[in-house]
Design a protein that fits this description.
Chain lengths: 418, 418
């Protein structure tokens, strides 16, 4: 089964908005076995969109559009696609109700042009939109399928995940359903995984094994098609165990989005608390935990000790260590973590000190040199990292990797607690 | 002048990589007056790419590709485009030298397939690549222009900015050059700006006025075409002044990327220091400053006081305020800022306390209620924000807006210092 993705929006053409929708949809389609060979971006222009539609349907069975479903006169995707199929637009009362209630809920006044959003192609499947005013829809005719979704990612993403993907899966997915398990890796790269597990990735068909790179970490998704979850897991688990044996030190968990989510989850389950003492990361270690809802049960607090003054005055790092070993030293990292733990009373304290660059590096402590430490009643660890790749944009990478290494260290320390 | 952007790469089609190149190039082309009406993504497949090229040149004068210039057998963009123009590939000695020296510099061994990267279409303009091994090139023939650049953004971005954009500007840019000034707004939305300044945005031609939305803030870019910078500014400045009169309270600066960059710049110039006391933002106020190189001269440090224990024990917020007014109160925000200033000795202290949600809201302090404060020798301010829009993904928005409001407050407080 082949699909094309057409993203509609002048803001995409002008480059004011990066097109994250296409990647999200392409990945979602791949997961249910639908191939994408072409993606297009067009403006809010019916003539050009119609040309794109004709070209796309000449080569594909399914066309998925995002954008152009809004209330203004230049939102014309629904009108253009309906015309392509020779269908009229008719008022859908339920859509209108939902748009009205959305305006009531957000205490705004609905204007007349919003009624346009409730006009739907006759005979279509309506995709109701709990996160905005524009409903999506699916037209199915003569073996061709057009799926239209709104452009804003926070409306499109849940619509695709909860409505479009299951609809396509049911229609085109073949027998059984897809189930998967994600293996979360830290400290090993996607290309290394691909090289080591090449045969598995290329040759296996049920389950399949697919690597995904994320910032600072990567994942393998093991996916099986089966009648029910239990049968799928019977196919998936032996493969997962085989991979786990190959990487005893690099798997931090299963089915997490990111390592910070794993920290909040593991610490919550173990009823452990955490605090941070951050120099080069400037709050990033804590910040990435606070991104996760539920972090308040885990994170007691933290000290951002960007200057030696704060390292000494607030965290209690001794002046001798700062003078003799320097702020970027394993000794300083340990004292920072000890100080934060003492101040906040958390079970485990994490610290990071280093040189993010681009300036400030010396021969002894070059850009990219970072020390991270973890301190708890179970013990103390400190680790030296050398993260520079010699590129102009290393600063952000060095800070992000430092935070992820600290999170990984927190997970390893948490293992020592029952 | 019309251009199409074609991004080549199976990783884009599969959604493993978000296509940031297309937005970057589209924006760069718009800045020199070249219009983009269509963007496409195709895999590393010569037949499909050839079809894209034919379609694109049927409608456009310029086609810009990214990707597919690498050393492996499936990198075929250069071969396909050269064939489209009936051109042979010939070895370019200078490219080969540069590829060899790149391998020497990064202490890796060059393999034979890298020679393929030095094979260039005969008669093309070569775009040498200081950031990677694959050179780009420009083919010009019969009024049509094909520009090929490598796919990795850190190679493509500088190549576009320093080589492709000046080449296109010289060729198609018309008389004079483009100069622009960016007005940075906080606290007014893009659509409000568009509505208020509609006539300017739609009708003016030299200079032009264009709004850009960014997360939590927005910009107007005023761009003029003129012989030199001085003549351009003579066209730009009166328009900027006119807009500044309309928005006396919402312009935080000029020519900044983001408000955190403005804070680091203004504080550096005024030799002011800053510290933070953060509850719901969990380090984000400091974190966004640390993103900016040079932040170490400005940010002394901060306290992440995620729990009342740390608010009282470290920052010294009185137990009475925590008990009677609560942690989410203007009084607590003020005491947090005072405490951080006392601990770090910074000139200005910023604080934020509030409910990011999705849980934890009460009738008295609902989700989205945030207090931010700034404290210095010049005085104390505290502000109540109500940031909820009642959406499932509000948490991230609430925290980001809180941080930006704090930065804006820092800039206003800094104005009181000479």
């Amino acid at each position: 089964m082949k699909a094309e993705i057409i993203c509609v929006g002048t803001e995409l053409l002008l480059g004011d908005v990066v097109n994250t929708n296409a990647a999200f949809i392409a990945k979602g389609l791949a997961a249910i076995g639908i191939n994408v060979y072409h993606q297009a971006v067009v403006g809010d222009n019916p003539k050009r969109l119609e040309k794109c539609l004709t070209d796309a349907f000449a080569e594909n069975d399914i066309v998925i559009t995002t954008g152009g479903l809004g209330p203004t006169y230049d939102d014309l995707t629904k009108e253009t696609v309906a015309a392509h199929f020779g269908k009229k637009l008719v008022l859908d009362e339920k859509s209108l109700e939902q748009i009205k209630s959305f305006y009531d809920r957000t205490k705004r006044v609905m204007t007349d042009n919003n009624i346009k959003q409730a006009m739907m192609p006759e005979g279509c499947t309506i995709l109701y939109n709990p996160n905005g005013t524009a409903p999506g829809c699916i037209i199915e005719e003569g073996g061709k399928v057009a799926v239209m979704m709104p452009g804003p990612p926070r409306e499109m993403l849940p619509m695709f995940e909860h409505q479009v993907s299951p609809w396509l899966e049911e229609k085109f997915g073949g027998e059984g359903k897809l189930f998967s398990k994600t293996i979360n890796f830290f400290g090993v790269g996607e290309s290394a995984l691909e090289a080591r597990l090449h045969d598995m990735i290329v040759e296996m068909t049920n389950p399949t094994v697919a690597p995904y790179a994320k910032p600072c970490e990567c994942q393998l998704r093991v996916t099986a098609r089966a009648e029910d979850e239990q049968s799928a897991m019977a196919l998936i688990n032996p493969v997962v165990e085989q991979i786990a044996e190959i990487y005893p030190d690099n798997i931090y968990g299963y089915n997490y989005q990111t390592i910070n989510e794993a920290v909040v989850d593991v610490f919550t389950k173990k009823r452990l608390t955490l605090c941070t003492a951050e120099s080069l990361t400037g709050g990033l270690i804590a910040q990435k935990l606070v991104e996760i809802s539920g972090a308040s049960a885990v994170l007691k607090g933290g000290i951002i000790s960007y200057t030696n003054e704060v390292k000494h005055g607030v965290l209690g790092v001794s002046q001798q260590i700062l003078d003799e070993k320097g702020a970027v030293s394993p000794e300083c990292a340990l004292e920072m973590a000890r100080g934060a733990r003492k101040l906040t009373g958390a079970d485990i304290a994490l610290s990071a000190t280093g040189v993010a660059g681009p300036t400030g590096g010396t021969e002894q402590t070059p850009v990219g040199r970072v020390y991270i430490a973890a301190v708890s009643e179970k013990g103390e660890v400190v680790k030296e990292l050398n993260l520079s790749r010699g590129r102009a944009d290393d600063r952000e990478m060095i800070r992000n990797y430092s935070a992820s290494h600290a999170h990984n260290m927190a997970l390893k320390m948490a293992k020592l607690f029952e």
